[in-house]
Amino acid sequence: MVSGKAMSKELTVAVDEKWIARRDGRMQVLGSCHFQVSPGELLAILGESGCGKSTLLRMLLSLDNDYQGAIKVDESPISLSGLKRSIVFQEPRLLPWLTTIQNVEFAMSGEDSGLTRQQRATSILELVGLSGFESNWPRQLSGGMAQRTALARALVNAPDLLLLDEPFAALDLHTRFRLQDELLGILGKQRTTTILVTHDIDEALYLGDRVLVMSGRPGTLKALHSVAATKPRDRTDPYLLNLRTVLFNELVSG
Amino acid sequence: MTALIVPILILIVWDLSVRLGYVPSTLVASPLDTLKDFWTLSADGTLGQHALISIIRLSLGFSLGTVIGIIFGAFVATNKLTAKLFEPTISVLAPIPAIAWVPLLIMLCGIGETSKVLLIAVGTFFVVSTHVIVGIRATPRDLVELAQVLRKSAWDCFCFVLFPSALPEIFVGMRVAMGLSWTLLLVSEIIASSDGLGWLIWDARNFSRPDDLFVGMICVGLLGRLSDMALVAVERVCTRWRSTYGQWQSNV
User: Fold this and answer.
1) Residue B124's closest CA among B192, B67, B167?
2) Which residues contact B12 (CB under 8 A, 6 or more apart)?
3) What secondary structure letter does DSSP report for B92?
4) Per-residue pLDDT tens digits for A139-176
5) Dihedral over Cα of B183, B184, B187, B188: its sign
6) Are B239 and A97 in contact (CB < 8 Å)?
7) What b/e readout covers A120-141, taking b as 16+ CB neighbours within 10 angstroms?
């Protein structure tokens, strides 16, 4: 079994500005964005497309370090902190020439011996409900199964911080609901600190411990709500529906 | 069965042309004469010997060109400095038809085995390296980014992402290069040799042995087909993960 330990450290995001170069000059993607993520919580970031959510994730992964401000883990910059991070993208991004289990093993560092690697990969695939599909090629998997594999790949190293970039956006409704529930089950066991970026209000409400609303470009923090309902939640809970209206109004007012 | 229709038609037209005297039988051997000659040459070992020496030259040159082509292509496609350093030069050398290297190679290495193997290697190198570069550069950026996110080393990224992604394109290059290699082999054996299938064909012309000439040509055709089938077989094993439209055809 994968023993996830919750991140014991506080993540502080204090981004002031983020510009990107474009052919026709510079464009500001992010404005002032200050928030903290507590150990073990699931923070949902809600915003329209193009508001800089994915850019923020790239910065959290240290793939993009060119911004004004700081992202810190306790007191040290995140790029130096050695914080174990992993991500699930909107599309599965499996390597087509590796089987399901090889794709999961690809994410592991080279330290483990072959057998342990295989055992860990097998058990994580079992966790996401893919037992029996270990030696399938990605092209033989359905969209939901491919995304489960991507989730398994993200979880296999027991990350301190799990980043989810609209992971269920491309799936049909039923598959999305099922995967959301499974994600909650897995995170409930592992208490992994998670940041979920989404443009789906219901998803943010169903999964998030807190929901952060971002404005359109340049993205800035607009509102931050705690979702005071225990999980698993009822998707039709009046409390959630009320909060949904609030979030909806915040989102559409730009 | 279907595969035999066209060869049989060709045999009939060929046989009739010779039999009815449309082409002089001193210049064109009939299918039957060719078959007889094939038997004679096989039985006394002549054909096998010539074929073997040709296959060795081809294999050596092709392997050498492919290995160097892949290594070179990989460096150019993954390293900015290497690309800047070599790509402009290569892009001028590559369009030179490989046959134009023959005089230079003969002057440098003589008319022995070296110049023949090197000629095939040079031809193969330019084709394969070009396809390696194109193939690696066509790797989806998303997958390279994934390797970055997983903090993979440059070597791991090459082995697990760039190379497998380029593999179908590399096989295209190898198949084209294999065809070119047969051309270059025959050219070098015709220009300067005393053995090999190219020599057999050329010698047949010199001594007006049309039956030998046809045996040589058919033998090259069959071996060429065999070499391509071997490449396709290896390709199919290496790219099982793909699912492509052409798969139903490649069983022919």
Assistant:
1) B67
2) none
3) H
4) 999 988 999 999 999 998 888 899 999 999 888 898 89
5) negative
6) yes
7) bbbebbebbebeebbebbbeeb
Is A91 touching B (CB cutoff 8 A)?
Answer: yes
Q: What is the pLDDT of residue B250?
A: 57
What one-character DSSP code corresponds to residue A160?
S
SS3 string, B173-216, reads HHHHHHHHHHHHHHHHHHHCCCCCHHHHHHHHHHCCCHHHHHHH
Q: Which residues in chain B have their CB less than 8 angstroms from residue A61's CB? A: 149
Give the minimum alpha-carbon distance from A16 to chain B in angstroms, rounded to a whole number.
24
Q: Is the separation of the CB atoms in B128 and A79 below 8 Å?
A: no
Top residue of B152, B241, B244, B245 to mutate, by most chain A CBs within 10 Å, is B241
pLDDT digits (tens, 9 = 90+) for B120-161: 999 999 999 999 999 999 999 999 999 988 889 999 999 999
pLDDT at A218: 81
Q: If you average pLDDT over residues A50-75, what whole number do you get?
A: 81
| Residue contact B239–A107, C-beta within 8 A | no
Residues of A in contact with B171 (CB under 8 A): none
Single pTM value for the model = 0.86
> Does the pLDDT of residue B2 top 50, yes or no?
yes
DSSP letters spanning A194-214: EEEEES-HHHHHHH-SEEEEE
Express as a percent the part of chain B with pLDDT over 90: 79
Residues of chain A in contact with residue B165, where contact means CB-CB under 8 angstroms, are 97
Q: Which chain B residues contact residue A107 at CB under 8 A?
A: 150
What residues of chain B lie within 8 A of the CB of A163, using their CB?
none
Residue A170 contacts B where some CB pair is shorter than 8 Å: no
